[in-house]
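The protein record filed here.
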Amino acid sequence: MSQVTIRHTRAEDIPELIRLQKLAYPPEMPPWSQVKFEHQLEIFPLGQVVAELDGRLVGCASSLVVLWDDWCDSHTWKEITAAGTFRNHNPDGKTLYGAEVFVDPEVRGVGLGHALYEGRRRLCRAMNLKRIIACGRLPGYHKHASEFSAEEYAKRVIWGDFNDPVLGFQLHENFHYCGVIEDYLPEDHESGGNASLIVWLNKRYDPSKPTLIPEEDIL
């Protein structure tokens, strides 16, 4: 039986992650460069994880810590991630920001997405962070863009009228929908540049304690 393993990203993983990112997204959404991956690993190695299936790389989740009040009104992916370099990572923050998740499109039905999200949740708990916030694609929106706004589309996904593979998955992972951010990722034509703002609250968060850096591998 195939087994999914979650571990921290290593520098030697980067070429394969670039290849997988090309497979996961439409041509108009180029993969990250080697340099961006290297910056992320240098700035916040704990927040970068990969999924392996029987020893083969099949997915990735990248995150940074932010002061959410600095970004809650409006932001783009490029702004909050410093164009993918994660230079905006702030260890004083209480929010783990999910900058990216992608999986091998040829590997489905084995729980890759759930395993990567669970890896993030473990990190959030281990660091005593208050929440995970992310902005997810709405890849099904282009089919309905002539009829509905992105906000109306997202509501109808929540109501069960439409099936969106990303937002539907996130809701299943117990994230809460908070609204739509326009022009979040302009090159994402399927989503019309829009993204759904979602949050997962860490019920174990203790405001009397500081943010922690785990001394042992929590994955």
User: Anything to note?
Assistant: The beta strands are 4-8, 48-53, 56-66, 95-103, 131-136, 176-181, 195-201. The chain has six helices and seven strands. Residues 65 and 96 are 5 Å apart (CA to CA).
